[in-house]
Protein 1
Amino acid sequence: MNTNRIFSNIKIQFDSLLGFWRRYKKNRAAMLGLYIFLFFFSVAILSPILAPYDPFDMNLHDPDAPLNPPSSKNPLGTDAFGRDQLSRMMYGARTSLFIGFLSTGISLVIGVVLGSISGYFGGWVDGLIMRFVDIFMMLPTFFLILVIAAVFGSNIWNVMWIIGLTGWPSITRLIRGNFLTLKNMDFIIAVRGAGASDAYIIFREILPNAIYSAIVAASMRVSGAIMTEASLSFLGLGDPNAVSWGWLLNEAMRAFRIAWWLPLFPGLAITLIAIGFNLMGDGINDALNPHLKER
């Protein structure tokens, strides 16, 4: 009996995912965003294999290596130290996506937990959490990130945590709003009347129905986290021991008048990945829209 129930649940989840994919792939813009993401994700994963050179290898012994424009040997040119920009761009994708995904994951966990507690219990708990959210949202976030990075250091882990710990308020508001709507619906009242615990109602009944808007917000939040890291690195508060697109822009500013390729390709990559994640977020939102499911 339990086995049949497990297989039945698996089939329901599979059918739900299949329906989601069918709706998602109808959106051409969303598919373009997915292709952009898959391209950069593949480059990030395979960079140790695809990169033609060591990203830190300096060719100072070769007088023609520094600031060499794009050529067959170096398709994206070289920097002031003779390092291959294509290799550095590939490894930079790993750092930027790593920070983007993990910092967004931190924001998502904090936002979901606080939003669930606030929306479900209400009362003074809701008031306390939301006042804290309001205070946090009044702060100039990017300035706060700058101060924290300057005080605690700017290695890659600190940057990831700083961005993650400042990006949760909007997700908290979304989850709270969904909980306030769902907790008074008939099926929740029935489950509560059957004697289900608060934890069961929150995690098994309400959260699976309330999480979708947070997933959409998180998909767009990744691009925001990547751009925040790029801004920090551009201002010299990134990790100098890790190659990232933002750090490449920081280095490019020293020679951008004579080496146009140095700022062009990192800036283009940041722009494309931001567009890709936003297109994906719009596509996910459309695919999860209950009105579209009926079509």
Protein 2
Amino acid sequence: MKLEADCKLISTIQGWNPMQHLRINSGIEMTRPTLWEGAGSENYCYNTNVGVYTPKTDWRPLESAELFKLIGITDGEDFPTTIQLLQIPDTLLTRGRECINEHIKNGTAEKPLDFFLNVSEKLVPEFIAELNEWVFENICTHSGWCDIGTVFRFPNQVFKGWATQASSTGWGGLHIDLWGPSPRRQMQSGYHGSRLILNLGEEDRQFVFMNLRVATMVQEHSEIFEPPHIAPLKELLLDRGLRLVGDAFMEMYPDYPVISVTLKPGWGYFAPTTSVLHDGYLGEMKLITPDVTLRTGHPKAEMRKGQEPWIAPTYLSAWRQACLQQIERLL
């Protein structure tokens, strides 16, 4: 199955080269299929019952026609559902590492969860304040972030119970974040939630994703609901099966290509992680030093009748213009 044009990507990083920092493969490996028979149960556990879908490792540079489908602004103007690559200043990267390492050395970081160690916003308020100030001055305006945390994976640390060591998230491969609105809701217009991820480590890491949104899978590839073990679950999946819609698509189209984005230290991205299949990918890292990422999400508004449940950031005109100016150069 060939790459389609849907969720797009843009970068304002100085020196960023799509032929060097983007790659594409031939799809996914289904390490473990989803246990569909239990999907309607209230006891269904996403950590153990969903499938494991990892990207194949036959990476190659993108061809010109593929880049044309991928580079740009989603739907021509929809910044919140566009993957936006960015680079924080070196001074801010150094400051973040200093704040975080202080808590690691002093043993004040939060309790490890399997192969994760978390340093929450409350432990590094100075750095978060500086980061917010930089984002709000250069990219977008907002009243603040939610779910801010810094996640570590240490060198040679053993994974406990997860199916793939290449995944940085513990989900065991490509997934859709569960905190977004339902697939049925995502077929309507409006903002659906995204995350900001920054690489604060000392090695390059990868962000991998499929560039089809949940709404596109449902509207343009409704055949994913036709297999006999999935058909009875269609209405349930449309109402609350955010992760499982992506699983159904990958099981029917395991040859749909995955995009790999290189994230050098200090590089990061905004991405609609509640709308697209994605994962943090560590398969090419040596992990001589810890893998360190900061992750945060945009706030969810109080749900009221007639209102959108998510507050989209207002992107600054200078940021929008910088992104638009890069499209011609990158293509």
Protein 3
Amino acid sequence: MQQAIPRDTLLDAICAYDYPPVTYDYAHQREVRFPTMRSLDDYLCCLLHSSEVRSVKDGLCGVLYWGYYRTGIRDHRVDRFRTMVTTSQLEHAIKTFRALDGTSLRSLQKLGLPEFGYMAFVSKLRTFLDPEHYCVLDSKIASLAPLTTRLTLQPTHIPITPRNERAYAWWVNACQSLALRLCARPTIRPVDVERGLFYLVDHGRRNLAEHYLENDRI
């Protein structure tokens, strides 16, 4: 039987996660800051599952706005997406989002959506489509030892290949397993664990994050 994780370690990191819960409301042309990441998750999930092309487009832009929020290229990336994406692509995306089964990273990549070609943003999209069951795998997380041995990495990105999709599935399962061990909070999701581990790496505690993964035994 697995032991519960001490409350004052990983759970504290989850609670301390400090990436801004912010995106942009394109319908009203204003930035929106949410009280919690769960509120942001719900907002973007609702847009992405809309049957209206405009709402889905705004949801995808919202994912990019949030993902690039701390960078100087945020507005450029969002504007490029809004300019390049076609109605046909968005209509295809609506149908695809309804039929997703499992990780589906290659299915999402095959949509050809601008800016959603590699692991970091395709996994962000998968997560916001189903924040109860999936989580993000970006370059910061990919630097953790248990993942570097499973992933095939390129200097500037993580390609979506069969091997890397298997690594992503392992990562989701690892976060789910850690979430189940946080007995103090039964509502912890895989994405919450991922964000806690991201916080540890982002604040110079990579060894502790790797310790949790290496000792999870899944």
Protein 4
Amino acid sequence: MNINKEFYKFNKYGFLDKPNLVKINFELLQKKILDYSEKIEEINWGEIRFDSNAKLGKITTKGGLSIVNTIGWIEEIDEMVNSVIGEFKDLIDFTLPNGWIITQVAIRISSPGDNELGLHTDTAGEYGIGILLNNWFSDSATTCFLPGTHKWPFTLREITGIPRIPTYFMNKLGLLKSAKGEAGTSYFFCNNTLHGRMANNTNKQNFTILISIFDLKKAPRNFDDSVLKKIKSSHDAFLKGLTGINLKSSKLSKDNNLINLKRKNKFFLIFIIIKLIFLPLSFLINTLYYQFILQIKKIFK
């Protein structure tokens, strides 16, 4: 598939998947991740999210276990990231002609019984790559997308104030597309596409590498030398992605990227009108949640 066809498909749906091209022992890598993670300390993600020294740590929630800032942690992970970044590089260059930079490499482990993460959008200028570390063909416990929503002029949260939409019923209606495939399958997506994660209703764990990529002008983080030295010089695509060096392509048209499909000035008045219409609903939902549901949860704890 040439770059024009790739971009057309990506631009249409807000995400694009590619089959496995990486040949490693995925079972051994999963075992390494689980064994090594036992020695990692829990961290406060909000406090270190954009630190340049990128401290390795894990975050445990009802939605699963995340190991963040894994750059240089396990060699096979770096190899996977380098290979997949190389596969998507032309598409990323085409999508972000002003340049781009990797800001995070994390591992997500979803275990049986873990909660879902409702559909949402992320920070402006953010894109992501996911890499499956095991064969996964179930809708449960995997990233899901509502195709085409990256083209909406405003995000759902901006309009309604609702942070997340439950995935269960949306999936039952057949509206969602899930990230599935053999181990090593990867997918590139725009974080302005409504996306989330299904609850894990299986009896298996699902392992995924998650890479955050930003438009160079909007990147909230830059790494220092101590982080860059963790990556072998042979991982050329990965290193360039961390530094943003030589990733800008002046030959690409700025009209051919997703950034220009969002939040244009002509939609501002429409946004204000819709926002005012949804204000009562937003107020009602927030009141019900914070005044009643949270209180009920405390009673039954």
